[in-house]
Sequence to fold (300 residues):
Amino acid sequence: MGMVQDKVVVVTGAGAGIGRDFAKAFAANGAKVVVNDLARDKESGQALAESVVAEIREAGGQAVAAVESVAEWDSAHKIVQAALDSFGRIDCIVNNAGIVRDRFIFNMSKEEWQAVVDVHLNGSFYMTRAAAPHFKSQESGSYVHMTSTSGLIGNLGQGNYSAAKMGIVGLSKSIALDMARFKVRSNCIAPWAWTAMTAGIPADTPEEKARVEKLKKMESAKIAPLAVYLASDRADKVSGQIFGVRANEIYFFSQIRMMRSMHRGDGWTPEMIADEAMPAFEASFFDNVPSMKLTPWDPV
Fold:
């Protein structure tokens, strides 16, 4: 018996990379998997999702493909319906689908912004919303969302991606609160992995090339066990949390809470804020640095 035996799990963006690893890990742990991906092989034209389904079935697992976009309301509902039609229920949504359109804010186009937000943030909501009534009626279910340190900390040239990934954290928190009484859970994972989405990292200088070689050691398959656990009944007390996986490390992230406060009985003027409040708060200010500065890694 696997940890998610007979649970029906939808994994979006599962045609390659982290999503493919998720789909295969869920199937290996007893789940019935809906493999979602819109992409097709450039040479054969075959849907990548169908290739992953074939891999799972060859290994003795159960899976079906859903070649639909998460970025549209109707097609997201079709993905969930594929689970219901094929397996009769839905137990977990893994919101993994994603794209990047990296550009500095002063050069980013409306289309580059919209495309990333549509897939990551809107797609996560559409998939969540499509499954929510079923989770509510059966009083069980789990959401696992992919966030990123680009959102949690910040990163250069990724305003669209960072905003979407931080938005997913807020979405997950709201899901956890809204659906707690129906025994439905929601959590986030910030994955470190070398995938097609990170393959575009610049590698022009010797230092950049060395960094990329280190990143390649972050195997995407190492992230899957945490996703499987979060979907399982063993995680019934885990909701509204943010985790990370980097190779053989598992992280637990803090969340935003008030740190300091000042009070004046007669209120504040702009001058008082400048003279009193900001000097008191300044020692607690966070440095404005990209995520890689706060998450260095020396693989062993």
Observations:
- The chain has one domain: 8-255.
- The longest strand covers residues 184-192.
